[in-house]
Amino acid sequence: GITGVTTSAQTLLDSEEIKQAAANLSAALQEFQSLNQKLAAQVDPLSDEINQTAQKTRETLERIQLAAENIRRATQPGSGLRLQLDDTLAQIADAANAIRNFANFLERNPNALLAGKASGEKTHPVKNPPLPSEKPAQPAE
Length: 141
Prior knowledge:
The structure is a single chain. By secondary structure, this protein is mostly helical. The chain is 72% helix and 0% strand. It is rod-shaped. It has helices at 2-14, 16-42, 48-75, 80-108, 112-115.
């Protein structure tokens, strides 16, 4: 149920796999940057095409590093995204509890929707207008 979803989301956000994946990505990006620097130092600086490729590679690397950092920030405890997710999951759990309580009430009082509130009940059923099939009979003329 909702508790399982909440627990699964918390486990995912706290998982070492996510943290390790971000660390591995960062390490791989650093190796890639080092290789890119070595390559740039060895090529003929007059070759426009190679320089453009190296520049695009650096820009791509920067975007990848930014994405890795955003993932790291978003998944750490106390981050805005994490707080919003925790709040949303708490609201879902509250809603599930309210629905469960209402279902339990209806189970104990199956006629509650038809008969209305029994004396002493704490709930306040909503009075709905009559359905079209329940139109009051019109007097005969």
